[in-house]
Amino acid sequence: MDKTRVKKLLSENIVVVVLILLCIGFGIASDTFFSARNISNILSQMCTNALLASGLTYVIILGGIDISVGSVVAVAGIIASYAGLQFPNMGIPFAMVLLIVCGIVVGLVCGFINGALIAYLDVIPMICTLSTMTALRGVAFVITGGQPVYGLPTSFAFLGASRVFPTAGMPNGAVPVVVIFTVIVVAIMHILLSQTVFGRHVFAVGSNKNVAHLSGIDVRKVTFICHVLSSVMAGLCGVVIASKLQNGQPNSGQGYEMFAIASTVLGGTSLAGGSGSVARAMFGCAVIAVIKTGMDLLQIYSYWQNVVIGCIIILAVVLDMAQKRGRN
Amino acid sequence: MEPILQVKNISKTFPGVKALSDVEADFYPGEVHTLVGENGAGKSTLIKIISGVYTPDPGGKVIFQGKEMNFTEPGQAIDAGIAVIHQELSIAKDLTVAQNVWLGREKKKKNGLLDKAKMNKDTQDILDFMKVDLKATTIAGELNAAQQQMVEIAKVISQNAKVVVMDEPTSSLSEHEIDALFEQVRILKKNNVAIIYITHRLKELTQICERVTVLRDGCKVDTMMVADVTEKQIVASMVGREMGDYYDKHDHEQGKEMLRVEGLTREGVFRDISFTAYAGEILGFSGLVGAGRTEVMEAIFGATPIDSGKVFVKGEEVHFKNPKEAISHKIGLVTEDRRRTGLLLEKNIIENTSLPSLPFHAKKMGFVNKDWEKEQAQKYKDSLKVKAPDLQTILRTLSGGNQQKVILGKWLAADTEILILDEPTRGIDVNARSEFYALMNDFVEAGGAIIMISSEMPEVIGIANRVLVMREGRISGELTGQDINEQSIISLASITSDAN
C-alpha cells in the first residue's frame, strides 16, 4: 500500500487509532483496565451515550443540532417511573414493554415539538432546542415537584441494571441487558441511515437543501423525522437510566447532550452536515467512555473529566475544519 | 510601451497535477488582455498566482512595475494595486454600496470612528464618474447581478488598482447589461489600467480586447493580437485542432404535445405565459437575464407556487405542489447554477445519479437498491462519456462539463421525457459544449422534449428549433426557422420605451 492511501485510511479512521492508543495507555497505567469487569463496565456506561449519539448523528448530518436531548431524558424517565408505580406487581416482560413504550411516546411528543418548530416554522435548530431544553427541564421539575420518583418494583430495573449469560467469574451474568438493547437499537439506526432511501435523503438534505428539494425530496419532512428520531433516542435513553437507578430524577441527563455531540463529532460526523455514520459515532462513544472510566481508575478528580471532554470536542471540531480546508 | 505586469516561468504543481508549466505573459497598461482556454487549461490558477492566492513553484516570477513581487496572500496584491473581480461576486448583501466599496479599508475620523459621510461621498463620486445610476447608500442586496458588478468595479476604482483581473464577468449578464459593463471596461482602459480578462465567449474578444493568450493543459500556446486573428483560429489553438461549427442544429420532426402551459401568472414576476412544447424539438427560451424565464420554469416544475394558470402534461392537467410530483410525471430540471442547485458536490457519481429516482426503485421496506443505482450510474457515465476515474469519484473534483453530464445522467436515469435546461452550457468549455449539444439532440430524437433557457444568443440560434422570447415577465414573441436570428431576438427581448 502506498503512502497516500495509508494516510487517507488513517485520517478517515483517526477515531479508531485514538481509541486503541487510549486503551493501550490506560492499560499500562492501570492493571485493572483490561479486566472483564471493567470492560463490561465501560460497555454499559457507553450505552446511554450511544443511544443519544445515534439520534444526534441524524440531525448533525442535516447540518443541525439537538441540545434538548438531556431534558428529554429526564422527562421520559419520570413518565416511565410514574407509569411503573401504577403496576407494583408487574413482571419483567411487562416492565420492558412499559419502559420502551414510555420512552418512545415521550420522544415522539418532544420530537414533534422540535421537528415542527425547526422543519415547518424555520426556527434555527440551536435556538429551538436550547429553548425546548430549558422548557422540558422545567416540565420535569414541575411534574415531580423537584423530588425523585421512587418505590418502583425490581422488575422495573431489569432493562437498565441486570446482566444475563452468567460465567464462572461473573455469576450474576457477563452481558448487561442494556448492552443488548442498545446494540439492537443502534443497529436499526445504522441500517436506516446507511441502507435506506430515507437515509440517503438525510445525506442529500444535509449536503444541499436546494438540490434535494429540486430532486423531489421533501426537505421539511426529512428534517422533521430526523428531529423526531433524535428525541425518540433520547426518550429511550431516559427510560434506560430510570430503569438502571430504579427511580425517576428530574435532573437526570443534565449535560448529556455535550457527551453525545462529542461522540458524534469524534466519529467523523461533520458539524457542517452532509456526512457521517452511526457506526462511527459508536467509536466516538467508546473513546469518551474509555476516557471517563480510565480517569476513574486512575482516581482523577471528576471535575477534570469535564475539562478533558470539553477539550476533546474542540480538538475534534478543529480537526474536522482542518480536513475541510485541506480539501479546498 | 513597458508592460506593467509580467509573469515569467510560472509553474504550479498540486499533488498529482501540474496545473501550469513555464507560462509567461506581459500585460500592458490601457490594454485588455484576455486569457482563453478550455476548463482546466490553467487560467484560474494563473490569476490566482497573480493575485496572491497561490504562490508559484520556485523559479517563477511575478514582476509588477519593474519589481519582483512575492505575494503570500491576496491582501498584499490588493495593496500593491492588483484587484480581482471574481466570477462569483463578493458582495456583502446586507451592507450598502459604499460599505461594500470600502470593506476592509474603511475610512476613519481622527477619533477612530467611521467617517461614513466621506465614504458615501467618495463612493458617489466614483459612481458618478462611472456614469452609473446608483446611490452609495443603497443596500447591495437590492441590486441585480449587473448592478452588483458595477459596485465591484467601483471598489476596484477606489483601490486605484493598476491591474484588474475580471474572471468571466459576463457569464451571468444579459446582452444589454454586457454593453454597460464593456463601457466601464473602456473607461478603465482610458485610465491606463491593465485588464486581465477571462471569458468563454470568444465573440467578446473583438469587442473590447487587444491581446489574447491561449492556454492549453497548463501551457501557453500563443499570445496574439486580436486584430490579426479570427475566432476560428483561436478556437483551433485552444483545442489543438481545427473545429467545425460547434453548433449542430438538427431538423427534428415535431411530435406529439408533451407540455402545454396556459396563462401561467405569478404577480410581479411573470404574467400570462402560454406555450406548448412538443416531442422531438428543442424549444429555446431567450431574453434578458431577469426576464422571468427561470422563474417560469421553476413554477412549472412545482418548486415555486403560481397565482393562476394551467399546466398540462401530455394533455392531462396537473397541479404540481412540489418537484417530486413533476418528477413522477417525467419532468426534469437542470438548473442554471450547478454548484448551488444542481449537484451534491461532496457526494459521488452514484449518489448524484440516483438521487431523484431512488424512491421509485427502492426495494422492500425502503431499502436502497444498490445494484440498480450502480448499474444506472455506470450506464450513464459510459454513454455520456463522463471523464472520471470511477463511480466513487466526488463531484467536486470533476470539471464543469463532466459535472453537467452527471446532472443530465441523473435525469435520464429518472426516465425524464420533458427536460428543462437552464443555461446548460454556462462555464463549460468548447469541446464539452459540442458533446452536450449532441446529447441534447439524441434526447429529442428519442422522443423527448427539451426546453432550453439560454442567454447566449449564438447558442439559441445554433441549437433551438423554435424560440420563445421573454421580456419583463411576458412572452414577447415566437420565432421559427429562418426568423431565428440575432436581430429579431434582440428586438423582441429589448426593453424599449414603447414596450408594454
Write a concise keyword list for the protein shown above.
heterodimer; A: 328 residues; mainly alpha; ABC transporter involved in vitamin B12 uptake, BtuC; two-stranded antiparallel sheet; 14 helices; 1% strand; B: 500 residues; alpha/beta; Rossmann fold; 2 domains; 6-stranded mixed sheet; 17 helices
List the helices and strands and how they pair.
The complex is a heterodimer of chains A (328) and B (500).
Chain A: H1 3-12, H2 14-29, H3 36-61, H4 69-85, H5 92-120, H6 125-144, H7 158-161, E1 163-164, E2 175-176, H8 177-195, H9 197-207, H10 209-214, H11 219-245, H12 256-266, H13 278-297, H14 302-327
Antiparallel strand pairs in A: 1-2
Helix pairs in contact in A: 2-13, 3-8, 3-11, 3-12, 3-13, 4-5, 4-6, 4-11, 5-6, 5-11, 8-9, 9-11, 12-13, 12-14
Chain B: E1 5-14, E2 17-27, E3 32-36, H1 43-50, E4 61-64, E5 67-69, H2 74-80, E6 82-85, H3 97-101, H4 116-129, H5 145-158, E7 163-167, H6 175-190, E8 194-198, H7 203-208, E9 211-216, E10 219-225, H8 231-239, E11 257-266, E12 270-278, E13 282-287, H9 293-300, E14 308-313, E15 316-318, H10 323-328, E16 331-334, H11 338-342, H12 349-354, H13 370-383, H14 400-413, E17 418-422, H15 430-445, E18 449-453, H16 457-463, E19 466-471, E20 474-480, H17 486-493
Parallel strand pairs in B: 3-8, 3-9, 6-7, 7-8, 13-18, 13-19, 16-17, 17-18
Antiparallel strand pairs in B: 1-2, 1-4, 4-5, 9-10, 11-12, 11-14, 14-15, 19-20
Helix pairs in contact in B: 4-5, 5-6, 13-14
